[in-house]
Amino acid sequence: MKRIGAAALLMLILLQPGCGSIEINQASVPIGIALDYQAGQIHLAVQMANPTSPEKTSGQGPRFFVFTSTGRTMIEAFRNLMLSFPRTPLWSQAGLYIFGEDFARSDMAMFADGVTRNQFIRKNIPIVVAHGATAEELIKVKTSIEPYTSTAIRDLLKTQESQLGIYTPVTMIEFVDRLSAPGVEPVLPMVTIDRSSEKEKLLLDGMAVFKDRRMIGSLNETESRGYRLLSPKMIQGGLFLIRSPLDENGWITLELSRSQAKIEPVIDGSRITMKIELKAEGNFYEQTGTGDLFSPSMFTQLNALASRELEQEIRQCIAQAQTLNSDYLGWGRIIHASHPQQWKELEPVWDQIFPYIQADVKVDFQIRRSYLTNKSFTFRE
């Protein structure tokens, strides 16, 4: 049975629908794909896995190779790769797309059309934007732990979301959906190269904001946190800090265990207010300084301070959306779903209305536990 299962798996890898089978020594595995503009043409850089396993190549050769090509269109750039690359790439194995900033600031209609037509491109893989570097420079960074740059970026997005709760991963299908749907705009995480030490490192650094299929600006760390909090889905994981009520120089670290936002439009004639209610709970993680914070009255203060901090992050995210006039908040989509008749009148003038919509934000945060100790330390003088 094991031999039959292994043979079936190998056939799935080697078969390309509609194109027959491919010999394993004629195929290659793309790990990540980077797209940018160069001299007026699309510049493609593909990170290919070394046919030898990463364990065997450690210290003996490169773990991956990067091959490049150009074309007048995205698909031509992909096909032109065959002019210098002797193997057939299994495009369905690619696990990450990287946009250079020049590419992101161009019309994304070509990208959306190309990827939705192509049956060999998986639609559930994440997309990021290269910041402060070209997409090719980013995909060439050699990471210390992960064998492939693309794998490292995917793991960075996943790990920070559960541990820090700052940047929201975005898949290709989510990006294309927001490009084409009315009343909502996309955002994408940005990745830069940290060159502050001798060895280059990858660093998540903001989120790219789009409008009319083009990148027009970005969110900083606080605004990115606010964007994540405004997700209508249940979110889990993250850390945030508040000032200690006992020491103006002290900090308290709280863990956000889960939260969910409810957003409801209130339309009164020409006046639109978005009513936002966030219910969140978390855990007391640590404090700097001394003082006993574990009393009902103190916990009431901490809950209020935490609620205020989360509210400020949400308001900063909203302010940036209205400054850029990009509805990445999806307020138009929400009105479309709840008030379809009003949306027919609002959609043609949404750009003129969106920057002036009022937001009524209410946050209710509750501390649930304090892990292994239920009181603050006391120290002998």
Give an overview of the whole structure.
The protein has 381 residues and is an alpha/beta fold. The protein contains 13 helices and 16 strands. It has an eight-stranded mixed beta sheet with strand order 6-5-4-8-9-10-11-12. Strands 13-14-15-16 form a four-stranded mixed beta sheet, with helices on both faces. It has a two-stranded antiparallel ribbon with strand order 1-2. β4 and β5 form a beta hairpin. α9 crosses α10. The N and C termini lie far apart (70 Å). The N terminus is likely disordered.
Task: Chart the SSEs and their pairings.
Layout: H1 2-14, E1 15-16, E2 20-21, E3 27-28, E4 30-38, E5 41-49, H2 54-57, E6 64-71, H3 74-80, E7 88-89, E8 97-99, H4 101-104, H5 109-117, E9 127-130, H6 135-139, H7 149-163, H8 172-180, E10 187-194, E11 201-211, E12 214-219, H9 221-229, E13 239-243, E14 251-268, E15 271-287, H10 296-324, H11 331-338, H12 340-346, H13 350-353, E16 358-369
Parallel strand pairs: 3-7, 4-8, 8-9, 9-10, 15-16
Antiparallel strand pairs: 1-2, 4-5, 5-6, 10-11, 11-12, 13-14, 14-15
Please name the defining characteristics of this protein.
single chain, 381 residues, alpha/beta, eight-stranded mixed β-sheet, four-stranded mixed β-sheet, 32% helix, 31% strand
Q: Helical content, roughly?
A: 25-40%
What is the residue-averaged pLDDT?
Answer: 87
Counting DSSP H or I runs of 4 or more residues, the number of helices is 13
**What is the overall shape?**
globular
Order of helices and strands: HEEEEEHEHEEHHEHHHEEEHEEEHHHHE
Radius of gyration: 24 Å
Question: Largest beta sheet, briefly?
Answer: 8 strands, mixed
